[in-house]
Amino acid sequence: MKKHLRGIAACLLAMSAASGAWAREPGVPTAVPAGNMMGLPAGANPPPGLYFNSRSGMWDATLSDGQGKDAGQDNKLADTALQLLWVPGWQVLGGSYRALLTLPLISNDQSRGAPFPPPLQGDSSRFTQGSVEISPIGLSWQLSPGIFASAGISVFAPVSRFDPAESINGGGDFWTISPSVGFSYLRDGWNLSAHAAWYTSTENETTDYKSGDEIMVNLTALRDMGGFSLGPVAYWRKQISDDRNDGAFYGGSTGGRAEQIGLGLGVSSRVNMVDVNLNITDDIRSRNTLGGPRVWLNLSLPLGQAR
Questions:
Q1: In the chain, which end has fewer C-beta atoms inside a 10 angstrom radius, N or C?
Q2: What is the pTM of this model?
Q3: Which among 220, 273, 162 has a CA at the least distance from the CA of 41?
C-alpha cells in the first residue's frame, strides 16, 4: 500500500486534448480527455509534500458521426499537461487535503474531407495551450487500511485564444466546473480504482453556444507483479444533456450527444524517485466525437516534503 500512496500524485493530473468533434461546440475540446484518471489510485491523496506531475499522450483519432461511421475528419494529437500538486498535511472534514494547478499544451494536426463541404475541407495544424485547471480542494478519507474514498472540485479557466472561425482551438470562451468522486482498494497487491466526474460549462461569451453536460468514468484494475503492476484499464464518457445555440454561429445548429468507451492495458512502476504509469487504449465505441488508439504516459516526481 505504501508504494501505491507514493504514486498517487499522478492520479490527480488532468489535461486537455484537442477534439474538433461535432458534439459540444465545434472545434472546442473537452475539459479533459476521456480516460485521464485511469491506471491511477484515484481515491487517495499522496503523502504530504509538493509534487510535479506530467501526463503526455499521443492519439491517432477519427471523427465518428451519431451512428459510429467515419465523418470525414482525422486528427493526430500530441499533448502534455504539466501540474503542481500540493498536499500540506492538513486534515479537513476528517480527510487529507490537497490543491493543484494544471497547464495543458496541445499539438493538433487535422485533415478534413467529405462529407464536410469543400470550404471546410483541407489540412490544418495548431500548437496551443488548453484551459487551465484550478482545483482548490480535494479531500481523501481512509475508510479502513488500504481503502480510500475521495471528493474534489476543479474549475477550468478560458485562458487560451479562441476564434470561432478556426477549425482547431485549445479551449472555448467559457468556464467549466467539475465535481468528482473516487474510490481505491489498495490492498493485497491490488490497485482497484474508480473515478467519476461531472462537467458543466457556462455559455461561450463569443458565440452564445453552450455545450451539454458530460460525465466521465475511469476504471483501473492493476495487480502487483513484483517490481511493477499490470492490468486492464477502461473509461466511459457520455454527454447527458443537449447543446444549446442561442447565437448565429455554426448556422444556428447544434451537434449530437457525444459518447466514448475505451479499453486498454496499464502498467505502473517506479524508476528511482519517479512514479511511472503507461496506458495503451483504443475506443471500442465513439459517437459524435473523435475515437482511436492512444498511448498515455504519466510521471510524478516529489519536489519536497511538507513542513
A1: C
A2: 0.89
A3: 220
